[in-house]
Design goal:
The chain is α+β, with helices and mostly antiparallel strands and about 300 residues long. It has 2 domains: about 120 residues, Ribosomal Protein S5, domain 2, CATH 3.30.230.20; about 170 residues, 2-Layer Sandwich (lpxc deacetylase, domain 1). It contains 7 helices and 20 strands. The strands form 5 sheets. Strands 11, 12, 13, 14, 15, 19 and 20 form a 7-stranded mixed β-sheet that branches. A 5-stranded mixed β-sheet has the order 2-3-9-4-5. A 3-stranded antiparallel β-sheet has the order 6-7-8, with no helix packed on it. Strand 17 and strand 18 form a beta hairpin. Helix 1 packs across helix 2 and helix 1 packs across helix 5. The radius of gyration is 18 Å and the shape is globular.
Length: about 300
């Protein structure tokens, strides 16, 4: 069955790129509502922005959705991952600015807030996207691919010259609370040189050593170091779940990412939905429900640092 929140969950913080303070409230919503943002600071245009793959606009650094009136919300991937990983299918997200707060750079605060608010079952079936054949997109040596599978699996590989990251790979079956236990606390990461370049161009104004893992060669500059030895690839998997959540329903398939980013994963969804023979929409029965991300998740699944 579909799920929503029992009560609103509230979050306050800075936008990573704008550096502006943001207040965001994730509200319960009716069955089949899906996930939508509403910009409370916009009064002269349509303020509703759907969290769907075909609303994504080009952006190199994060995922941005925009409606037909040009109203947008950016850096949505961490809250989308938290919603998908907590099995929340319906919500209206009110936000008073153009960017979701970065908080600690992971999805942990969002998941913690959702579980504190409570999750309510709704009397409506979950419609999933079953992958029927392999679909793949490439950009140089970066690859994003979907293959048929009984449940969502994420297989991700990265390779950075920086010794503090290097080559990392991880495969995870996303059933039940796996996202919350294994990925939710993994933070966004960047190289110090990239931070300097972004700030020179007026970006990453809200970035600090407290809300991102900053790497400089073989050194981790953020206090306390890494939360996991392979935190960077775990975060890329978190991002992938958030971007795949824009499909409009859970995906039943295996996602393979090799150096993939937000834009490539969105291209993959566009390629999938452009080919009617590559997918089928299915109502999830009892056996399938138990394989979906977040179903049955509870506070005991939260990492110890929560």
């Amino acid at each position: 069955m579909q799920n929503t929140l029992k009560s609103p969950a509230r979050f306050t913080g800075l936008g990573l790129h704008t550096g502006l303070p943001v207040r965001m409230v994730v509200h319960p919503a009716a069955a089949d509502h899906g996930i939508r943002f509403r910009r409370t600071d916009v009064a002269d245009r349509d303020a509703l922005v759907p969290a769907l793959w075909d609303a994504v606009t080009p952006s190199r650094l994060c995922t941005v959705v925009e409606n037909a009136d040009g109203v947008s919300v950016s850096t949505i991937e961490h809250v989308m991952a938290a919603l998908a990983g907590s099995a929340i299918h319906n919500s209206l997200i009110e936000i008073d600015g153009p960017e979701v707060p970065i908080l600690d750079g992971s999805s942990l605060a969002f998941v913690t807030g959702f579980l504190a608010a409570g999750i309510e079952e709704q009397d409506a079936p979950i419609r999933a996207v079953r992958v029927l054949k392999a679909v793949e997109v490439r950009d140089g040596d970066a690859v994003a691919r979907l293959e048929p599978a009984d449940m969502l699996e994420i297989d991700f590989s990265i390779d950075f010259a920086d010794a503090a990251i290097g080559a990392q790979s991880r495969v995870l079956n996303m059933a039940n609370g796996a996202f919350v236990r294994e990925l939710s606390d993994s933070r966004t990461f960047c190289r110090q040189a990239d931070v300097d370049a972004m700030r020179a161009n007026g970006l990453a104004l809200g970035g600090t050593l407290e809300n991102a893992v900053v790497i400089d060669g073989d050194r981790v500059l953020s206090p306390g170091g890494l939360r996991h030895q392979d935190e960077p690839v775990r975060h890329k998997m978190l991002d992938a779940l958030g971007d795949l959540a824009l499909a409009g329903g859970p995906i039943l398939g295996r996602y393979i990412g090799v150096r993939a980013g937000h834009a490539l994963t969105n291209r993959l969804l566009r390629a999938l939905f452009a080919d009617p023979s590559a997918f089928r929409l299915v109502d999830c029965g009892p056996q399938t429900l138990g394989k979906l991300p977040g179903v049955g998740v509870h506070v005991g699944d939260l990492p110890a640092r929560a």
